Amino acid sequence: MRVALVASRIYNRRDSQFSGWNNRLTTSLKSLPISRTKWGWVLTITALLCCLCTVGCKKAANINGADAIRVGIITSITGPEARFGQAQKYGYEMALNEINTSGLLGKKLELVYQDDTSKAEVASLTVEKLADRDDIVALIGAYSSSATFPAASVADRYQIPMLCPSATTDEITRQGYKWVFRICAAANDYGRTLIKFLNEVAYAHRLAIVYENTQFGSSVARAALDQASKAAIDIVAYEAYDQGGTDFTPLLTRVKSAGPDAVLFVSYLADATLLMRQSKEIDLNPKVFTAGGAGFSLPDFLKGAGDTAEYTISVTQWTPDAKWTGSREWADKFRTLFDYEPSYHSVQAYMSLKVLADAIERAGSTDRLAVRDGIKSSSLDSIFGPIHFNDAGQNEHPVAITQVLNGKFTTVWPSSVAIGQPVLPTPQWSARKTITTGLNAQPGVHVPASVSGAEKLLQTLASGLLTGGIYALIGIGLTIVFGVMRVVNFAHGALVMVGMYSTYFLFTHSRLDPFLSLIVVIPGMFIIGVILQRILIAPVLRAPELNQILLTEGISIVLINTALLLFTSNYLTMTTSYAGAAFHFGDVSLSKPQMGAFLIAIIITGAVYLFLVRTSTGRQIRATAQDSEAARLLGINIKRVQALTFGLGVAAAGAAGSLLMPIYYRVEPNAGSPFTLKAFVVVVLGGMGSVTGALVGGIVLGIAEAMGAVYVATGYKDAVAFVIFLMVLTLKPSGLLGKSKV
Amino acid sequence: MIRAKPILLTGILFLLIFAPLILETRYSQHVMILVLLYVALGSAWNILGGFAGQLSLGHAAFFGIGAYTSAVIASKTSLSPWLAIVIGPLVVLPIALIVGWICFRLRGPYFTLATIAIGEVVRLVTLNWTSLTGGAVGVVIRPSVFDGTSKLPYYYIILIIALSSIMLSSVLSRRKLGYYLMSIREDEETAESIGIDTTRYKLIALALSASLTAISGAFYANYFLFVDPTIVLPLALSVEIVLIAIIGGLGTVPGPILGAILLKLSSELFRNEFAQANLLIYGVLLIVVILFMPGGLIGGVRKIMKWGARNPRRVSA
Amino acid sequence: MFLLEVKNLTKRFGGLVAVESLSFSVNAGETVSIIGPNGAGKTTVFNLITGFYRPTSGEIRFDGWDLIGSKPHKIALAGVGRTFQVVKPLRGLTVFENVLVGAFAHTGHRSEAQRIARDVLDFTDLAPLSDAIADGLPIGMRKRLELARSLATSPKLVLLDEVMSGLNPTESKEAIDLIRRLRDERGISAVAGVEHVMQVVMSISDRVIVLNHGRKIAEGPPSKVIDDPDVIEAYLGRVNGQ
To answer: Is residue C101 part of a domain?
Structure first.
């Protein structure tokens, strides 16, 4: 009896409040013979029906007129590879205009663009979607190897002709496909040409291969590895790294200690820039730096790597100055049309469409089989060299070798297309003040500077320590937020990225030195942090922790994609006066920007520590971290402390971003993302919520990663960090120091 | 009262069986397959994350292992990669037990972070164990049993997998195991105090969840016919699986279904309509849902219904 | 033979001695109160018996079994039920589901578990609240729900931690009544942890054990203990001092 009374007391208030609602809802509910608790199902069914309808409508929208010849173009309009998608789009548009001035089989050619969002899954889906449309004659795409490889298998299965403009993975033309053709040279050609050059022109004997662990990188590296064994070139190092690396010093130390006389880098732009600059910093002096195209053959590389780009040898699919029919005129026309420096991506796209149009013209029909046979029998002399497909569908495109001379790509080999002589061996970094010309390599053995075991260890420890300082600063931001609010902030890396962009713009627009930019970035980021906390974090403090994690993940997605919209996915690179400079102690070299960043990171860490220990606000923060309930009872304004702490955490992340800029040289929307996971590792190593712990954790992580990169296979470098992380979590969850509070 | 639910469910089943015959373009069938795949993944995660409250952000590892089992069978043996639907869970189970051994002694954010780390370790090992996995290049799988041009067989296979996951969740939610898992989610100490072997039941939940995820992974490899570490093992996949369960409604049976439909369908639509801004909209939506519907869409609807349905009954008691 | 027998039980946390050389026993069908001020070690004793803490030294035997080193769930299944000082309802579940979970301890069948749950809900007068979400209940109801959930596991002994704290006079009276009925109607032994010397508690206790700073300072029938000079000094002295 009493219980019933209590029940009505608990619920009555709510009832009266919503009684109007109630009555209406209950009546409508009663008329429906559905169990009241199963409303989720009804919602689900409704959604399912909507789903089917939408999909059905998509089908209706596919029907189009037949007044034009349509070609499906798959490229990366969004996502990390959008910049290359844009380059391809210029090529397609240029070819389209040329074709449509005269028309094709009396009709207009029309391009149907599909965005693969830089994802393989989506690329395959779009192939399917386009293959389903009867009005699409053929496909061209995608941009990257990883998107093209699976997409090609779909095209072959659905029997629609597909031209691959730029994917280099050998596997694409090794599957026995009958409908897939590739315009560009494959990874294997890169490897063969490079090794031939190293063997016959550069007289290299000891090659170190460093490649990004992606489809493209590993394909080219593997091809070079295979060819080298045939050419009696020793591979002294074969190192994979995860794309978007933050510090290559340990990796390059490992390479240096292997004593190569030639180095081969296979990397995209961001890493290409950093690899060259850090090669200078640690004074890596092989006889020649070579590269497998990609990042090293783009105009932006010259800008990003600055003077360190000089003398770099690279394979390239095409250069504006190549001696192919009309390539110079084409390049000029392209520049006037788009005000954009043509890269080989544009040419490949342009040529793919031209080849396709030529095939349709010759086939005299838009029948897919006829068009495929038309492509198969192509025989053209073009700005991209002669076009002719072998039985596997591969255009036997010769690749050329360029060298950066006086800040420009110059074709130096093979002699049939060369317009200059290669400068070999590459001058040592220390002798680079004056530009050397016309020196040719002599046959003979290059004696690489030897590195003693002790020096190697010291170098590793030093670069690990320097990186660790930055990790510590990033970790501190995360740890104090966790200590006070018990929130694991997944947006931490994105906030580092915001700091990086801020510093970049302060440097380029106000000529403010990156280190000085902290004066602006720290307060700015602090305010951003306070606002974020007040509006978004505070409401979920009492929510389940997964909701908190996903909220911060949402913030991360929004920040990264806002940056994408504002600045595109292009790398923005900056060069300070001290870029690439280093202190040398024997064979151990310490990069000046890294030293500066390390010192400032330590100073900031110390300041944060003193703030927490010495000031009353700091003590309030610590008290809240210890026991927020007790702190509230003591009259501490918890909300203020929480906002303050989050501001502080975000400011630390931003400061770390600023300090990264002079080391990292470049920024793009995803530049901060790797730091989220690193920050987690740091914080767990040091014990969640502990500032001194974060310092220790950062340095331990930095050194562990460096040691891993130098003494363990580089590909497993990050695995080393995670394994340590898991071990600490399992064996000593309170962190290495065993403290769990600020 | 007429028993409406069985009639409704039979209706849906018929609809699902005949839908691909009505919407016969391969693209629409593909979208439906994708939605069902994520329904299966969301439901599988929900057993561990929603019912048992163990918030794993490492499920991509189980998915990837299932997918790579297919790839290895296809590239190293002459057997059909479809066998991975059976072998995949067997490969995943011992790994799941190790994961459980490491992670289940951890609580809250520590557990979640450990699962992220395990996911990353699996990804890095796959990426670097080139002789087995083909590394970053990935593996193209030849179509087996079906020729890969008709979507229908794939649709029905994933329909069966998805329905099995849902039925398992639905049966669980009404049985001892389901109640035990929910008790563990609500309070582990309480659960122990009433005789629940929390470690054992968490392991059972993990094993079920991981196996179902591996089966979905094996299906994916056979359907998509290509795997590489960036496709089947990224952290982003783990996050997406969790999002589906959260946005739909954590710990409810229809939640993951609703989440998968909305998320996968909207990302298809956004990609075409908003191009550059599609992920931005996705992020904003995520924040809005978390802030204003912490129980997911199902939770939101139930809350509204509760005002009307639950309380009057209580007063009359 | 005793149902529960504790011998020389000691628990140290670092340098702090929470329980020191404690011995006591409980007979089948007996209601025992452990009283002592906050921090006297009552909760630690309960956590030791139920396996949430591992004793530093000493013996705990239940129904002839050695409980040391057993996991909490094993001890629960052996017949030791408990409630928590800070109540821990399974928040998202209904009252009925909370009890149902307990009822699954000895059966896998839903219908059987439901039967047990209904029986326990009737016994504890919670039946009218069956469909309420546990999170929304007032403190008195939550304490009662804890006991009901524990009873659903068919224990021989229940340990009731801080059974009276936070209850208003009416609620206290109802709780006392329920404990009395445990013994009288179901023959279940109970050990009730109580912070203050309360006449009502004394009235239902067969025996009272008084703890102070982890040591037993008195034991015996309620009427005797209340006159014990040590208890008066340790306990009532404290009251006078306030």
So the answer is: no
